[in-house]
alpha-L-rhamnosidase
Amino acid sequence: MQLLHVIKVIYQKAHFINPQKLLSFFCFFFTINLISAQQIEVTKSLCENKINPIGIETDAPRLTWILASSKRNVKQSAYQIQVSEKEKSLKNTILWDSGKIITDQSVHVNYNGPKLISLKKYYWRVRVWNQNNKVSKWSTINTWQMGLLNIFDWQAEWIEVSSEKSENRPSPLFRNKFKVTKEIESATAIITSHGLYIAYINGKKIGDSYFTPGWTSYNKRLQYQTYDVTSLLQKGDNAIGAILGSGWYRGTLAWEGNKDLYGKNLALLLQINLKYADGTSETVGTNKNWKTTTGEILTSEIYNGELIDARHKKKGWNLPDYNDQDWKLVHVVSLDKNYLVATINEPIRKQETFKPIDVIITPEGDHVLDFGQNLVGFVQIKVKGKKGDEITLKHAEILDKNGNFYTENLRAAKQENKYILNGENVETFEPHFTWQGFRYVSVKGISGKINPENFTAVALYSDMQQTGSFTTSNELINKLQHNIEWGQKGNFLDVPTDCPQRDERLGWTGDAQVFFNTASFNMQVDNFFAKWMKDVEADQLKNGSVPHVIPNVLNSNDSGSAGWADVATIIPWDMYLNYGDKKILKDQYNSMKAWVDYITSQSKDFLWNSGTHFGDWLYYIPEKNDTETRSAETDKFLIAQCFYANSTQIMINTSLLLNKPDDFERYTTLLKNIKQAFIKKYTSPDGVLSSNSQTAYVLALQFDMLPENMRAQAAKHLADNIKSYDYHLTTGFLGTPYLCHVLTRFGYHDLAYTLLMQKTYPSWLYPVTMGATTIWERWDGQKPNGDFQTPAMNSFNHYAYGAIGDWMYKTLGGIKSSTSISEVGYKKSIIKPYIYNKLVSKNENEQTKDEQLTMIQSNLETYYGKISSHWQNNENQIYMDITIPVNTSAELHIPSNNIESVIEGDSKLSKSENVKIIETTSTEIIVALGSGSYHFTIKK
């Protein structure tokens, strides 16, 4: 009726309207109404959390789709999936049709059709019905392609260099030729290596990934990558080539000259499966006929960098017509293929690029480029010079207080790339199998003035989708968020590393678990961590203890530290809460259980007071000349008992979720005994803990170690402790992530906000005021007078303290998921932003403008779509703009106790048809929202 009325009005006034404009209007109007009539549509489809993935190894891939609608309160009531072996067959011959399935599930829906075939490509689409039984259009057709599903699918052979005498271990080249005589329908390359590889077909690089095959527990799990190489092949002669680098496999790792940790010899395994248009197929791959030599990469190490001598370059070595008569035949080796696994996480790719913002001549005479951002990757250089000229690029994160190039904190890592010119025209260089962490680059060997246009810094990190954004009215907080994001980018190179620059770059478990929640706001990290958690289980000791670093390249006894080894339970549980992924709990359950049972075996009378622990790593220690001489140290065994309880609680939750009643009962009893032992050992009746530190109270309150009647007292002791340090935090790696959460939970939100806004050491904003562009490892990595902390451990890109981002998103932005079983993964959102933020260390009229938050825009892309929580606090009113994805719901907390003062859109809240009031308290109105966008105005 509404449409007919509009048409009637337009018709009556048509003689006043240009006919062409009238036609355009009708087309637009009918399109909008058609979408409106459909009410729901599929906008994005994922398989195993990726778009059109290739190399899937699971026999039941999980399918996800994101929905959109122009209307509010729209939900899915049913879906139908169709899968075919050919795109056109989706209109006639279907491999699997789910039929109409009555459910609102749209995330991680398992394929349930006929058995899947190795390397086969499958086409799929989905349509859904809304709550009114209106069906959507079919989605666009998406694909997935399988990997190699059994060992017999491997026809290629492992090949190595016949002999290797050079101490520098130059990167070997491998090549072979083959002929294509038929029209190719499709070609798939499957590649892995001992060491890192770069592969080519006819001179063109296969894929755009770096540092493949990635880093895993190589002797237990070695990844292979799958590529569609159809477009790289040609009729007639074709050449396949590959370069290998030492990488993590045999390069130096950790300390004391550790190398060859997985083996001494580099090896390549590569095959191409060709499918011809006539229905026949062929496989070509590494075998005894391949040849090898060395080229321009004379040495390449992750820590030390790369030496490239262009005078040794083999021009055209990866092209079909190259003469390789001087090359040697490879050595075929019998190596196990049973531990080869498909890659499930995103590859490392080139990302942002930076040009120098300044060229500096330091007091010591170094020529230094400043790229303006502490990043991880390498520098591309274009240079023209004489044959034999040597260019050296050294990398550093920071200049010292005198403005000189500072590399002492790199310890034994050289972070140095050298290029020797061949003298032919303009030459372009970049490293192949190494990366650096840097903002500043020292350049030596270039005669004359340095042209900054000839240098480009390239950021490298695992290619995960950015999912979160967090912007405020406070520029320092915005810079902090920037630093958190870049700390994550620089340390998420296939594994979550502790730092990207010094002689370490290891997958420290404690750092990863404390940062996981923040990481999952910033990026889509579930595939990244699902892969890494498989290595946690692979390297877990037989007794259940978990190593300090994963993959484990330390000693076997370097394991079992509280808060580090608890990665085995904490990340799987948090991944379930954040992504609704029950599979991670099923996959990791035995590992989780083994860890908690290990702690129990090491405990006496339910007290875990044995073993070696890092404790609250890098907590605040006052300067020697500081008048405040108290220590913020926390008893390591008190910390251990708290994490023992937390991991046991996770086992209770998981065993209940996975329907394991015996484990549920056992861990429930165990947790009761753990907490009783804690109270007896570490507490007094008035809530004072034996360690009177911030971290002690934070962990005891975060993990509910105290009975209800003691918690308020303990929270007050925590608040008093913070005030006694002049409103500063003193926590280290284990206390910091939970500090502000605990304060907010127990009624001290303004104190938490005060800690966030502190600009003096120790605080989150202190490094920002010192010019940091990433998160520092230490609260005082550089002191106010310009001096540095001990160079033995002083990274300026170390994400652990960036864990405050979780609280910023959840509390200031107000976005978090419900934790109810059927609502995790943002199936239901809790939107509760804290809009009234005050500094308790100052009177309100003393607060400067930059110490107040008047606006926050926070967004999160979930597997249901985008959640937005935007608010602005003006003098007379508050605005809130909320977006809830289709097929989800939300509970919104509005900061007012007067329903009549709240307007939604153009209507009073009390009369809004789409907002249901749940409860009104003395401080807020709680409402239920369905999907859609909402604009609230709250009059003060």
About this structure: The CA atoms of residues 750 and 838 lie 5 Å apart. The longest helix spans residues 636-657.
